[in-house]
């Protein structure tokens, strides 16, 4: 699988939580996002430097990368993580639960005025963050594990197809 094919598969299967995803599909898509983000970031810094820092392009890029981009890739990312878990014969709902819970924790931290509890003093936020951090780390490790050889309950082996 090429990087182009991995990115196309990410967006074409963005709402498909069934089937299986190979390691190369996941890692090449991550690599493409890192490369594109780096190049656009460098371009925004160059444009800011050339214009004497009047346009604040780098600030707009930072806003895009911290808010808009994660919102756009949230569901396709969950779908890909779910398919990756299927490839090692695990339930894909694990990825959905961890992703949604992480998004809720992130929202709670950024918008403290919506919640009547003081999470910092109660320690609840720290406990949730540690648990979700461990879960996120486990999802990261899953991307290194070789997929189940042959068909499993989630579909045929993607290496064979």
Automatic annotation (TrEMBL):
InterPro entries: DUF805. It holds the Pfam family DUF805. GO terms for cellular component: plasma membrane. It comes from the Bacteria. Keywords: Membrane, Transmembrane, Transmembrane helix. The chain crosses the membrane at residues 26-47, 53-78, 90-109, 124-145. The keyword Coiled coil does not apply. This is DUF805 domain-containing protein.
């Amino acid at each position: 699988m090429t990087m182009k094919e991995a990115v196309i598969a990410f967006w074409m299967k963005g709402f498909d939580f069934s089937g299986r995803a190979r390691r190369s599909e996941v890692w090449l898509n991550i690599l493409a996002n890192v490369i594109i983000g780096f190049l656009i970031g460098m371009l925004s810094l160059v444009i800011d430097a050339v214009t004497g820092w009047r346009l604040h392009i780098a600030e707009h890029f930072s806003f895009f990368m911290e808010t808009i981009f994660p919102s756009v890739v949230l569901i396709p990312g969950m779908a890909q993580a779910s398919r990756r878990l299927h490839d090692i014969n695990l339930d894909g709902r694990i990825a959905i639960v961890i992703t949604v819970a992480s998004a809720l924790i992130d929202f709670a931290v950024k918008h403290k005025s919506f919640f009547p509890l003081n999470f910092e003093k109660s320690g609840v936020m720290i406990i949730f963050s540690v648990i979700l951090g461990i879960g996120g780390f486990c999802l990261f490790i899953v991307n290194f594990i070789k997929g189940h050889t042959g068909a499993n309950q989630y579909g045929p082996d993607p290496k064979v197809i």
